[in-house]
Amino acid sequence: MLPHPSTAARALAMTTLVGAAGAAYAFGYEVRAYTLRRVALPVLPPGSAPVRVLHLSDLHMTPAQDRKQEWLRSLASLEPDLVINTGDNLAHMRSVPVVLDALGDLLEVPGVFVLGSNDYFAPSVRNPARYLLPDDGQRNTHTPRLPSEELREGLRSRGWRDLSNRRDVLETAGLRFAFAGVDDPHLEYDDLATVAGRADPDADVRIAVAHAPYLRVLDAFARDGYDAIFAGHTHGGQICLPGRGAIVTNCDLEPARAKGLHRHPAGSHPGDEGSSWLHVSAGLGTSPYAPARFACRPEASLVTLTSR
Ligand SMILES: [Fe+2]
Hints:
By secondary structure, the chain is α/β, with parallel strands linked by helices. It is built from 7 helices and 12 strands. The strands form 2 sheets. It has a 6-stranded mixed beta sheet with strand order 1-12-2-3-4-5, with helices on one face. Strands 6-7-8-9-11-10 form a 6-stranded mixed beta sheet, covered by helices on one side. Helix 2 packs parallel to helix 3. The relative contact order is 0.21. The structure holds fe (ii) ion (FE2). Fe (ii) ion binds next to loops.
């Protein structure tokens, strides 16, 4: 007769089983459970009709990701008035035509973009535990360069405005939008001095854009009077605690604001001088070397701008 396993052995077996089930779910299902998150953002002049903004981020696309490409292509049916793309589109040398093709009819819509570190440098094998640790300050800049200029040109040639350390103005849905953006703060490519200054007071709405939501960038845009700041990079924490949320953001933003709509500075209220809305996308992808998400679905966001 076999001896009864000890309580410790049973607990270990159960923990291993739960861990294996969680990993199977995170790698096998959730990482491809693409979700549209909808949110209302009250920044328009009183009496304005709603404006639909599609916020895309962190596609981390490889040519083989057919389902992600198909899901992305389907978003054109939302008929947004504006697309905001906050970078990290690429995860492969041959991904630029794939991304442009998957954006499809969205490229007919007015759009703005900035690039992220993963548009500049190829992904590499790194310790997956790094995703659960605070930002280690190391930057992935020793890998081959990705065709970031081909991506930039591809988007620009379809009329999307490049906001890398630039300000711009465009009209959509009958409203005048003033934009400012920075190149990726995670790589310290942000040049805040070139975009500094009071946001255009004559615009109907003022929006700032960055890939990685570092506090120095959020502080500067909020101080300059932007109504809302859009960012990505955090992947929403990517591996989250159910019911509790993100553990890390891979930058100096605190985990409580890793995704979704919040205020900046945290705790400020609309109308407070030097404050802004902050919308962070959890993004649609992951590094191909860490293809797992837990309690943090891959997402695009339909942000409906409404009257203040
Ligand atoms: Fe990313």
